[in-house]
Amino acid sequence: MALSSTDPGPSSLGASDATPAPQRASASDSASAKAQALTLERLRANVGKLSTTMLKELDSSLPWYRRLSADERSALGMVAQNGIAAFVQWYQRPSSPQWVLSDVFGTAPAELTRSISLQRALQLIRIVVQVVEDQVPDLAPKAEQSALREAVLRYSREVAFAAADVYARAAESRGSWDTRLEALVVDGILRGENSDALQSRIAALGWKSQSRFTVMVGKSPSETNAVFVSDLRRAAGRFAEDALVGIQGDRLILVLGGVAEKEMAYLRLSELFAPGPVVYGPLANTLADTSLSAQAAFSAMAVAKAWPGAPRPVAADDLWPERVISGDDTARRALLKNIYRPLVAASNGLAETLGSYLQLGHSLEATARELFVHANTVRYRLRRVCDVTGWDPLIPREAFVLQTALVVGRLATPAKPTVERSPARPA
Q1: Is the pLDDT of residue 212 over 70?
Q2: 2, pLDDT greater than 50
Q3: Phi then psi for 282, rounded to 5 degrees?
Q4: Which three-class secondary structure state does DSSP give residue 57?
């Protein structure tokens, strides 16, 4: 059948789109490649301009940036400039984010994390990205602007994740260093290290307390991981201004500074130790004296089993008798200073009355007959003993402490009296 004059012939079909599809795709790809090449060329030519604009924007938009030192601003400016230069390379050949750590941050992570927080670092990255995005109309042909904006967004995401990675690694490194430094400080306190060196190390950990130091010692739980140490430090923060945690074998050591409500603090913190005795040393007024508190706590911990009925926690001073029996000279001197010599200095027969009362089975009547005084006189003198020493002879455990003090005092070498020299006669 013949074709009508109105039917299009084969030669007229697709006359408006005579170019084959592969050729059209090739032409489109070629145009896109040319546009991308032109954009890349403009990016390379404007790296300096972008860097200058970025530094001005940082100075005008971020008040904290202006307050940084010249060295800190230089380090951060270098990071930002590296970010722009690296974007140009990334735009040409997008790759894995591993390069960001070396190309953008380079050797700056230590300076970066020391100068500003992660939040401020992200603010800086936002400024850098905004500067590049604002220049998109001048950097790319109209057909390539959308692709360039998308590339800027993808690049900013990679840099933000890389910054977070830098800060995370710095935090892990700092945490490991703080743990080692904390162990050194605790060990220095236990050994009575030079106070100046110790003060320098403890200041590096952010220690601020200047008084009311003490040391707690007990058995450590079977699993002392980072979570346990963090929980212990957080609990200690409720009762003390500062806290250090040390773990030496099966012993858990807690150094507290600026202790408030010490009775409640010792009781609540002792619950975090493993079963067994928990001992706390006397309060120290200076950091140098904290080693004495630690030594007292460790000495008491070694003999705590000799007092099965000891409270938990127990003060190191409450174990003076056991410490003296074990050969602790510090406890012996403490009994002399705090109990025996004040009793002798108080006169009025307090030491003799206490000795008779303890020797005669805690009998008021027998003591009165022994001393030829009234029983009420004995009661009065025993109350005076409590007032002078702080230990009550009517309580069995405290009577044992007082009796040990009397034994130590009687065995002690009497202090030599000071001989006053007469003034020399004038020649």
Answers
A1: yes
A2: no
A3: -70, 155
A4: helix
Q: How far apart are CA 313 and CA 323, in angstroms?
A: 17
Cβ contact 378:371 at 8 Å: yes
Distance, in Å, from the CA atom of 271 to the CA atom of 277, rounded to the nearest integer, reads: 11
Asked whether the predicted pLDDT for residue 101 surpasses 50, the reply is no
User: Between the CA atoms of 50, 55, 61 and 62, what dihedral angle is there, to the nearest 10 degrees?
Assistant: 140
Helix (H, G, I), strand (E, B) or coil at 241: strand
* Of 107-116, 194-203, 277-286, the least confident: 107-116
287, two tokens: 């950091």
Kindly report, residue by residue over 30-47, the tens digit of the pLDDT.
666 777 777 777 777 877
Mean pLDDT of all residues in the chain?
78
Q: 60-69, 108-117, 122-131, 327-336: which has the minimum mean pLDDT?
A: 108-117
Q: What long-range pairs does 107-114 form, CB within 8 A, spacing at least 24?
A: 108/75, 108/78, 108/79, 109/166, 109/169, 109/170, 110/170, 111/72, 111/75, 112/75, 112/76, 112/79, 112/166, 113/166, 113/167, 113/170, 113/171
Q: Which two tokens stand for residue 7?
A: 């039917």
Q: In the 8-state DSSP scheme, what is residue 339? A: I
Contact 219, 233 (CB under 8 A): no
The residue type at 205: L
- In angstroms, the CA 41 to CA 275 distance is 72
CB atoms within 10 A of CB 411: 9
Q: Which of 82, 90, 85 has the alpha carbon at shortest distance from 98? A: 90
The more confident residue out of 80 and 371 is: 371
Question: What pTM does this model have?
Answer: 0.58
DSSP E strands in 103-250: the ranges are: 214-219, 240-248
* CA–CA separation, 279 and 302 (whole Å): 10
